Every structure is written in C-alpha cells, then in structure tokens.
Amino acid sequence: MVLYDATTENGLRNFARDLTDTDSTTYTDAKLNASINRYYDLVTTDILESMDEWDFQGEIATASLVAGQQEYVLPVDILKIKRIECMIDGVKWYNVRFMDINEIDIATDTTSITSNFNVSDPRADLMDRSLMLYPIPTANVTGGIRIWYEKLETLLSADADEPNFSRAFHKLLAIGAAIDYFKKYVGQNDNATKLADARQEYQLVTEKMKAMYRRKNQDRAYTMTPYDAGYDYGNY
Predict the structure, then answer these.
(1) Is the dihedral of CA 152, 154, 156, 159 positive or negative?
(2) Which residues, at least 6 apart from 35, have a Cβ–Cβ distance to it below 8 Å?
C-alpha cells in the first residue's frame, strides 16, 4: 500500500482519512505522514523482535582498518548488529566477539591491549555510535571490517513510497494514524469508542503480523544421528 493514491484511493493516507472521516484540511498531509512514520518505527521494532533467522532489513557494510585506529563509526542507519568480522592481521577473516569494557581488569593503554588481546580472537565494545576494536589494528587493510546488521527503515515521504514489510499488514500504519487522531479529539463525535475499536484492531493485526514473521525462517535440512553410534539400541 503506497503512502497516497489519488486514483484508486488505496493508500495509507486515504485509508487513515476514511477511518477518521477527515480530509486534507482536518488531517493535513504533514501531520498524517508524521503519525504514519511513527507507527512505521513501531512496526519495524515489532518485526525485529519477532524474527528468528530471517533478516527483515538485512544489510552488510564494509570499512577499512587503519593502523593505530581503535574506534570505527557504525553505519548511520544501523538498528541491530548481527555479526562483525575483521581482517585485523591483514591476512585472514576473524569473527569479532562482543564484550563490555567492564569485563576486563587490565588497563586500556595501547601496550596493555596489545599484550592481552590476540588478532585471531578480536573483540569489540560498542560505544554510542561506534565500536572499539581489541586489539588495535597495526596495519592498513582496505575493506578490512564487515558488519552485518538490520537497518532503520526509510521514512515515507513521497506519495508512491511503500512500507518495507509484508503488504498484508500495511494498514497498521493507517490504523495507528487513526489512533493518534482519536486520542487528540477523544471528546468529539464518539471518538472514545472509535479509539477503543482502533486500538483493538491494531493489537489483533499486530499479533497476526508477529506470528507470521516468527515463522518466516529460512528452510533447513535437519539430520538426526544417534548419541552413541556403537550402541545397539535393539527393538524397543
């Protein structure tokens, strides 16, 4: 469902105004878009919480390692980190394990870090919008760090923009925008009842969406082997 469709009226703003019995004067494009995008953020986090192995908005970013540089800025659109690898020795890729600075009882000067961390077992501590590598790279490596992550959604602005999740649940954004409207004008036109109905529908559709995304995993082939291959289990 696109943000707005003047021809078929099958758009998010169209649906929200239909639910609230408003028009572009009583529920302006600017306010309606802002509300729709707020619920877009909420729906995205609901999907991420529901997912298992399937990547909703997966992305891979690369950056170059710089000798003597410990801090590396994360992508601006990052929402959730899935995995980090780096070629900290300039030869082989290694999986980077996460840690917290409070977990180590050594000093964090360059000499101590070099002595206590191994290039074959690199660690990373997340600090605000950056990650700190342990040990500190000693060589320049082009494209020497890779980050797998879930990215923030691009907010809807143009009429033809469409949410980046299953179309069956796009109407959640319009229902959310209607909820905002009914809350603001709860004392008018039986809006209290409409607010309760909209909240109930939003919850029901959200649960269906989360259930669908919980099952939207990659196919796997599973093989069962006996615990002890030499044991005769007999006929039981």
Answers:
(1) negative
(2) 16, 176, 177, 180, 181
CA distances from 170 to 46, 98, 164, 167, 177 (A): 13, 35, 9, 5, 12
Rounded to 5 degrees, what are φ and ψ at 4? Answer: -155, 135
Reported as a single tens digit per residue, the pLDDT across 19-65 is 999 999 999 999 999 999 999 999 998 988 887 655 667 889 999 99
DSSP structure class, residue 158: S
Q: How far apart are CA 9 and CA 6, in angstroms?
A: 5
Does the global pTM surpass 0.70? Answer: yes
Cα–Cα dist 144/136, whole Å: 13
How far apart CA 12 and CA 2 sit, in angstroms, is: 6
- Residues 28/34, Cβ–Cβ less than 8 Å: no
Q: How many CB atoms lie within 10 A of CB 24?
A: 11
